[in-house]
Amino acid sequence: MTAELVRGQNHPLPDTRLEIRVSAGHPVVALATLGDADGRVTDAGRVAHPGAPALPGVGVPRTVAAEHRLAVDPAALPEAVHRVSVLLVLPPGEGGPDRFGTAAAPYVSVCGPEGRALVAHTLAGLGRETAVVALELYRRQGAWKVRAVGQGYEGGLAALLADQGLERPAELAATVLEAAARPPVTAAGAPGTGGAPRSAPQDGTSGGGTISYSHPRRRPSAPVPAPATPVPAATAPVPAPGPGEPDPASPYPAPVAGDAAGWSMDERLYNQVWGMFEDLARTAAAYRSARDFAETRLDQELDQALSDPRARIGGAGDAARAAAKARHDDLVERAREVLDRDLDRLAAESEVVEPALPVAYARWDNPVWHAYRAPDEPPMAVRLGDLHLPERPELRIPLLVRLPLERGIWVDSGRDRSGAAGVLDPAELRRLALDTAVAHTARLLAVHPPGRFAVHVLDPAGSGAAAFAPLVETGVLAAPVARGAAGVTTVLEQLTERVDLLQMALRAGAPDALPPGLDTARQLLIVHDFPHGFDDRAVTRLRYLADEGPSVGVHLLLVADREDAAAYGPVLDPLWRSLLRLTPVPDDHLADPWVGHAWTYEPPVLPPGSAVLRQVLAHVAGARPQSPR
Questions:
Q1: Which of 130, 394, 447, 542 has the maximal Cβ count within 10 Å?
Q2: Beta bridge pairs of residue 523
Q3: Which CA distances in Å does 543 have to 134, 475, 482, 496, 529?
Q4: What is the pLDDT of residues 298-340, one digit of tens each?
Q5: Do the beta carbons of residue 491 and residue 482 sit within 8 Å?
Q6: For residue 390, how many other CB atoms are within 10 A of its CB?
């Protein structure tokens, strides 16, 4: 099991050759420094970089790339070397980010000879830094350990090398970046000397281009222009702090991604997002309670003032009304100040957390999707959209749903139950609903290990062919799209039989007694245009799958308008109630019984013209194990 390290945490390493893998999601230069017992780098010959990629016991890549592999052989290191530091540097002029805070957090892992990751660290919480010490391997009492460092340097590689004690660090930094910009002399990927070939920049569109790694709601800090006349130091403008950097005027610590309890970074980020949801719910509830109290008190005071006939005429009544209104306004204003303070802190935390989210939790416009790789294990949860409240609609909290799914999903394509949907053309609304379902499906496929999540599609009338094209053309479906009443019957019969077999095996305590060749992957059934093509028996089987399927790994994704099934009357009420209702347009239908809020749900949206969904699906299809012929 891979140990997820937080900043400052260490972990023992085996006495074998090691491979350090870097996945940054954007171009970086990877290098290593060899330090003595005090951690000092005595000369430039102790720095492995693209211009000098091979040192005794260490090999680094020659090129700039989003992914790297570095080789370290502790047994081959000189006796004077007690510390190996792995450095990542942003190269100038590569079309990538100008600082680590504006891009996805790099992910670094240390792997054993068999390729299994021993430890991993996500470099979260970086801001204006352009160079960072990711990890350090150090010798302690004859054994080697690894420590997660995550120390960034706003002054770049020169400042980092100077901090490690190297003389003339600026000269070596210029040499490293110049060597990284040159084409490699040896074949890319040679062990210990090469690296991953530089990948062509992609923007997720069919036309190509460079990626914009700027966070959409983060303002880059620009140099402050010199004033025309001297400005006193006390009033001189100060650049706004970057993401993750402390604000000198704020009494609160700077937010850090992954700053929550948990055994892994996945769990810590999940708990942090859940904590942000709870904080937003609490502060909004407190503000609404104070506002309601102010309104109630104002009404009572006005009633009391007007209950005395003598106060209805003359200045006494006007003064009483003015005083009551002033007390009301003062209470609401103070409550709003507290609310704005809490919302500002949550917004700052969101600015730091959002770019650091892994694939399962990230929006579709996050650069982490361009560095997608198939996972070894499913995550704790998956993102199905965003939530927000009217107090600050631009503050979005990811809607994370735990895996495995405990209930099915219903993407509502109807107009009667949503105000935003009521203004759309029915055909357009149905198209949006199906596109939303395909986006959910692609994410579920991407976050599960290859071969452990299978998708079936029921499209009785064939009206969803265009929307299902990415799933069909990339080959990620377990079987061809089922059409017509016969296709509906066949697929439902197969999945119902599967649920029966799995339930019998589990109840008998003999999960190994399943028929040979039974696919053990979780199954997702997408049903489009329900109830077209369904007879009474098919409807009964669908209800059975919705109720009993999740417990044995069979899940339902229904795209339907409830009005289309009105002929069944209350028979289908249990079906609708058993499913998590989501909408293809923003809608405030998700009730929070804890504080009484109605959260507005925002469905996932792909960037306009983006090809990222097809790219991810193609990667998923290519990573699936091939069945024996």
A1: 542
A2: 454, 554
A3: 51, 28, 19, 10, 16
A4: 988 888 877 777 666 667 777 888 888 999 999 999 999 999 9
A5: yes
A6: 10
